[in-house]
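Late entry, written up from scratch paper. The run itself happened at the end of the previous shift, but nothing got recorded in the book at the time, so transcribing now.
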Amino acid sequence: MTRDGNSRVVITGLGSVSALGLDTDRFWTAVKTGQSGIAPLQGFADAALKIKLGAQVKGFDAAAHFSSRDLPLLDRYSQFALMACREAIGQAGLEPAVLHDAAAVIGTGCGGKETDEITYAHLYKEQKSRAHPFTIPKGMPSAAASQVSMQLSIAGPVFTVSSACSSANHAIAQAALLIRAGVVEVAIAGGTDAPFTYGLLKAWEALRVVSTDNCRPFSADRSGLVLGEGAGMVVLESERHARRRGASILARLAGSGMTADAGHITDPSADGAARAIRAALKDAAIDAQSVEYVNAHGTGTLANDRTETEALHRVFGTHAKALMVSSTKAMHGHALGASGGLEFIATVLALREGIIPPTINFTGPGEGCDLDYVPNVARERKIRVAISNSFAFGGLNAVQVLQAI
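Output as recorded:
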């Protein structure tokens, strides 16, 4: 498939908030040096929780980043979204007039859980008779997208995508489609989530997929995922628009693939994942043999890691053994709707800097996990083509193909 400069999509800005730091420089420094943001869970000392670990954002003071006027309307997940969007837009150097006509597509798996938790505590625990009047506008799933629109004066198409752990990749795909269709020339997209509330932690606890000791993707002794929080946002532009304004282009978003397993609500399907990867490569018009690096979904659960490895074998055949595959979730945790955004950023920077992030905590391959997972130490390697996988509960799959400029 041949695309002209209006339909080719490039990345010109990156923004992130995570357990690895409040900006992308700190995020990338931690990722490429194999530093973990996973630590003992803070803020739940008296709670009856079996979950003891989390990749929580540290050193974050909302009052230092937002006005006292705005804070009452900003759930934690909206705060993260705004901070990451500001950084991405700042790096891209977008003027207000360009932003006004841009799109914003914000993914979230949870929405405003902090607001929900506070509200339910007032009503059921403290026996209050009324909820706060801002409960709905602060906690609704589209609140982050609305806040990004209002505070950054983005007046083009603005909406929320919610597809569990694939939310950010789906949001980026939708933003790219808007650009390719000629609806907008610029879009900001990604994901945000803040899942560290007692009620949500108890719900995850009940699923029995959360590790009590650490996140070890693809390892024989892996014991589950570790939850994280934060936001990962990127600025996308048509290549013609970016070059016309002299923007620094970080990488090209060559193609996207989206499928559904149409099967089990929690048990992943290698077929569904493989079809998403094939669809992304077809959309990018890139041969599977050209892919050098895979930023894996890699949650550290028994089912996901084995199934994702099988999907890679199905798509890449004998070339699968030549792939470098890594999961950065062992560092920033599984930030749910934000994970795809953080991992997309890591993939862009791997292409740009020639450094392949490691899979830390790797102790040896698990059954069915027989690929090169870049164990424990980053690898210096100039690459041209990479993919970033997101595979969500409900069998919702989204894959991005990224290409070096």
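The CA atoms of residues 215 and 247 lie 38 Å apart.
(Scratch paper discarded after transcription.)
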